[in-house]
Design a protein that fits this description.
The protein is α+β, with helices and mostly antiparallel strands. Helix content is about 15%, strand content about 40%. It has one domain: Jelly Rolls (Sandwich), CATH 2.60.120.590. It has 3 helices and 16 strands.
Length: about 220
């Protein structure tokens, strides 16, 4: 594959990064402050989980919300009590639906507290997604974010109170920062099609502290 060309975007303006939509000033001032306070109060943790015979730790702090039909979901022999969107997050879900027509039923939240906190290149294209769209909202300190396709790497510094819409399993990363940072909070809204998919979210984003019981599934 030939070397990709890097394009950097002005994060103070509404723009498109290839097929990805970026919008500034998503919430009004009062709603923004309410959201930041709610995010600061969540029970954040870096989840540990087994993979290929080793224990891995998520390189950022996470949490999640969402429920389909069942209160309890199962994944990899573990069970979780699902939690509906709290009122502050439900307002955001409805606003996203109003603005772009995307109706989420699940949410993964990320906290990038330190410069080493990151997420590696990946695409949210799991089979359990009803629609391969992710709406990503940023609050707090700006962090560099990248998407890529066969020709280009698109770079932008995600600003406080901004919205990024990724469709069709866009490949993306939020790399480590070479300079000190302050916390960045990230709300990612998704649409899950199955209870197993919802269980996947709770397993990898709430972790062992929230297992209800062991169950072979």
């Amino acid at each position: 594959m030939s070397r990709r060309t890097t394009i950097r975007y002005d994060s103070q303006k509404d723009t498109s990064l290839g097929s990805t939509l970026y919008r500034t000033s998503f919430l009004g001032h009062d709603e923004e402050q309410e959201t930041i306070q709610a995010l600061q109060s969540l029970t954040w943790s870096k989840v540990e989980y087994p993979m290929y015979g080793n224990i891995r730790k998520t390189p950022r702090s996470t949490w999640c919300f969402g429920r389909l039909g069942q209160e309890i979901v199962y994944y990899r022999g573990k069970s979780f009590m699902t939690e509906l969107f709290p009122e502050w997050l439900e307002k955001i879900r409805l606003l996203v639906k109003e603005k772009i027509g995307f109706e989420a039923n699940a949410c993964i939240l990320n906290l990038y507290k330190e410069n080493e906190d990151h997420i590696t290149w990946h695409a949210d294209d799991e089979k359990f997604l009803d629609e391969k769209t992710v709406v990503s909202l940023s609050f707090g300190h700006p962090r560099e974010f990248c998407t890529r396709d066969k020709q280009f790497i698109h770079k932008i510094s995600l600003q406080n109170n901004s919205m990024l819409v990724m469709r069709d399993g866009t490949e993306h990363t939020l790399p480590t920062s070479k300079s000190p940072v302050k916390p960045r909070y990230n709300i990612t809204l998704r649409r899950v099609a199955s209870e197993k998919g919802m269980g996947n979210y709770y397993y990898y984003n709430r972790g062992s502290n929230y297992f209800l019981e062991n169950k072979v599934c």
